[in-house]
Design brief:
This protein has 6 helices and 19 strands. The protein is of the alpha+beta class and 400 residues long. The protein has 2 domains: 214 residues, no CATH class; 164 residues, no CATH class. β9 and β10 form a beta hairpin.
Amino acid sequence: MAVNIPIRLVRKGGDLIPLDVTTLTLDVDRGVNPHTTPLGGGKRWAFDFNMAKAVILLEGIIADDELTSQTTDLGQKSTATLDFSRTSAVNNNGNLLLDSLVSQWEITANDLTNNDFDNYKIPRMNLKSESNDVVEIYFIKSDTTYGYDLGSSGKYHVSIVEAGGTMRTAAEIAGYLTDLINSSLNSSYLSNRFTALRVNSNITNNTNEAVDITQVTAGNNSNGVTPSWVGYSTTPHTTLFTGGEPSSSAFTSMSAGDKVMLLYGTLNNSNDGGITAISKGHLKSKRDTLGHGLAGISQQDLKYGDYIIGIQIPFNSTIDNDAGDKYIAKNFFMPTGGMENVVTKHPRQAQLASSVISNPNDNDETTFIKGAVTKATFVQIGGEPIYQFNIQFVPVDSIL
């Protein structure tokens, strides 16, 4: 089954512009010029200095959103990971210490009072939803494995030790947290904001001792903020929410004329600003390319963020596809550089088309092809709200 994902232009601020492309041309000119010599019997020789030129040609149409199926949801949901097999402690060199979380929590757990939420030693975790709601979860001593409002506390809890003093295992704690988040407790308050999946530890490979927590709503508002811990120094190895992107692209809810105006205005006057013009920190800030909520956008985002700096071109791949369908969608990438080889240039290295671009300014990104638009032509068809376009994109590793 073919996977239909649009080609997307990548802007410096991280936004994507999906295009309804009808014809795609990938052109490479190796610059190899054969020559013959007198009295050589027609034999040819040439120099090949590996100085290839490349150009990508796009032809397609631009139409009102309601007239095309191209209003693909490009949003990504942010995900965090808690690994209960290990603590988050590091040594003086910043390397992770492979200490067991359960053994560390056991030191304090038996000092806790059964079903008590007031002891300052109790580990407490905060989760922030995409809509800025903050939920606090207590890890307490209790025979009730997980729940809400235990003893009229008005709080969420997960049991880390039984009332009799027996410690829960890392897999049990991970399971209780997963069940709590996915439950219908408190009118499904947690499950309306997050989903949880118990997974194997990436550190120890222990089975079901980690939890992936994913935002229900797509967006970047929660990136890099939580899960955070309060009141206890030893915590599970925690990866903050990351990967979220707004569900609206730069082309959402626009007419064909709006879209052409956006592209025409951008291509007539936009500045890359150099590799440091937008930092990774700016990419995590709240953005709205349509001009809403501009107070949340940095001045550098406003000045340089609209520059088209790359392109994502999906293709259907049968390599490493374990999902059951014939194809999975991956993005073309440009393996330039003196260290590339037959392995690094193989399609197995291509990233999934759903992969999030962590930094459009990074020359080593393989989630898209970096470069610039050198020419674009827009033609309105018969006075109708439909435009044809021809866009010429040139791959470039570094733009000065």
